[in-house]
């Protein structure tokens, strides 16, 4: 998506994370862990990330999560 197509609240959140995490604000889920910090991601959240149901962030580092299909 282009920045103009993203809700202001989501974009603002992304920008804050991007600055705080030195440019790494979106990471993929590695098995059951956050690809950014390694924290455990609950199965329900992983399921929703896989199904692309809304946006989800890691409870530990706040980075946005996505599922990388192989």
Commentary on this structure:
This protein is of the alpha+beta class. It has one domain. 30% of the residues lie in helices and 14% in strands. It is built from two helices and three strands. It has helices at 8-20, 43-50; strands spanning 26-30, 33-34, 64-66. A three-stranded mixed sheet has the order 2-1-3, with helices on one face. A hairpin with a 2-residue loop joins strand 1 and strand 2 (33-34). The radius of gyration is 12 Å and the shape is globular. The two termini are 22 Å apart.
Describe the SSE topology:
Blueprint: H1 8-20, E1 26-30, E2 33-34, H2 43-50, E3 64-66
Parallel strand pairs: 1-3
Antiparallel strand pairs: 1-2
List its salient traits.
single chain; 70 residues; alpha+beta; three-stranded mixed β-sheet; 3 strands; globular
Give the overall silhouette.
globular
As a percent range, the share of strand residues is: 5-15%
Q: What is the number of beta strands?
A: 3
Q: What is the radius of gyration computed over CA atoms, rounded to a whole number of angstroms?
A: 12 Å
Total discrete domains: 1
Q: SS-based structural class?
A: alpha+beta
- Which range best describes the helical content: under 10%, 10-25%, 25-40%, 40-55%, 55-70% or over 70%? 25-40%
Main-sheet strand order equals 2-1-3
Q: Give the low-pLDDT segments.
A: none
Beginning-to-end CA distance, first to last residue: 22 Å
Q: What profile does the largest beta sheet have?
A: 3 strands, mixed
């Amino acid at each position: 998506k282009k920045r103009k197509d993203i809700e202001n609240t989501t974009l603002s959140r992304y920008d804050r994370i991007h600055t705080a995490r030195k440019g790494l604000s979106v990471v993929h889920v590695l098995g059951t862990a956050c690809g950014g910090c390694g924290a455990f991601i609950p199965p329900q959240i992983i399921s929703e990330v896989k199904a692309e149901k809304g946006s989800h962030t890691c409870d530990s580092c706040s980075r946005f999560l996505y599922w990388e299909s192989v």
